[in-house]
C-alpha cells in the first residue's frame, strides 16, 4: 500500500493552495475517524481522503483522472475507485463503504470549515443546526453543491445532522493543527 509519506509528497507535488491543502487534511482526518468508528482500514481511508483532490489544482481539466491513474499504477484500485466516484455527476458506481464515505465527507467537510472560518470562535460552539441553516443559504459558500451533501449522507446511510456533528467533533480535536482555533487564541 502507498505509505502516508508517499501520499503527502504526491499531494504536495501537485497542490500549493493553503486552502486546498487544508481541505485535503480535513477530509483525511474525518475519513480516518469514520474508519475507526466503523472498523475499517484507517490508513487506507485516511490516504483516500488526503488524495481525493490531489490533482485538482495542477490538472483541473483532468481531475480526478490524474490521481486515479497514479493510484491504479501503484495497484491501489480501491482508493482509485473511491476517488473516481467522489462526485455523483461523474456517474461512477458506489461499490464499497469507502466510496460512499468519501462522497459523504468531501463537500460537507469543506462546508463546515467555511462555516467555522466566519466565526470568531471557529469550531468552538459550532453546532450542526447552524451548519444546516447555512446550507439553506445558497449564497454562502456557493461553490458547495448542496445536492452532493444530501446524496452523500443518503448513500452513506447517515443522518445529516448526526454526520455534521461527528465531523465537527473530529475537526475540533485537530483545530490547532488545522489553524481553526478561536480568533485571538492562535499560538
Automatic annotation (TrEMBL):
The HD domain, residue ranges: 21-92
One GO MF term attached to the UniProt entry: hydrolase activity
Keyword Hydrolase on entry: yes
TM region positions: none
Pfam families tied to this protein: HD
Record InterPro entries: HD_domain
UniProt keyword list: Hydrolase
Keyword Hydrolase: yes
Source taxon at top rank: Bacteria
Protein name as annotated: Metal dependent phosphohydrolase
Provenance organism: Pontibacter chinhatensis
Amino acid at each position: 500500500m502507498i505509505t502516508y509519506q508517499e501520499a503527502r509528497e504526491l499531494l504536495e507535488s501537485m497542490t500549493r493552495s493553503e486552502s486546498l491543502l487544508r481541505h485535503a487534511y480535513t477530509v483525511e482526518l474525518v475519513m480516518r475517524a469514520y474508519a475507526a468508528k466503523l472498523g475499517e482500514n484507517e490508513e487506507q481511508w485516511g490516504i483516500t481522503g488526503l488524495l481525493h483532490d490531489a490533482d485538482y489544482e495542477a490538472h483541473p481539466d483532468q481531475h480526478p483522472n490524474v490521481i486515479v491513474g497514479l493510484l491504479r499504477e501503484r495497484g491501489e484500485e480501491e482508493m482509485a475507485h473511491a476517488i473516481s466516484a467522489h462526485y455523483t455527476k461523474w456517474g461512477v458506481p458506489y461499490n464499497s463503504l469507502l466510496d460512499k464515505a468519501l462522497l459523504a465527507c468531501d463537500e460537507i467537510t469543506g462546508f463546515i470549515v467555511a462555516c467555522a472560518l466566519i466565526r470568531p470562535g471557529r469550531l468552538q460552539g459550532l453546532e450542526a443546526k447552524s451548519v444546516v441553516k447555512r446550507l439553506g443559504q445558497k449564497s454562502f459558500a456557493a461553490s458547495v453543491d448542496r445536492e452532493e451533501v444530501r446524496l452523500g449522507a443518503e448513500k452513506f446511510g447517515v443522518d445529516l445532522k448526526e454526520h455534521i456533528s461527528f465531523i465537527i467533533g473530529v475537526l475540533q480535536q485537530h483545530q490547532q493543527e488545522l489553524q481553526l482555533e478561536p480568533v485571538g487564541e492562535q499560538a
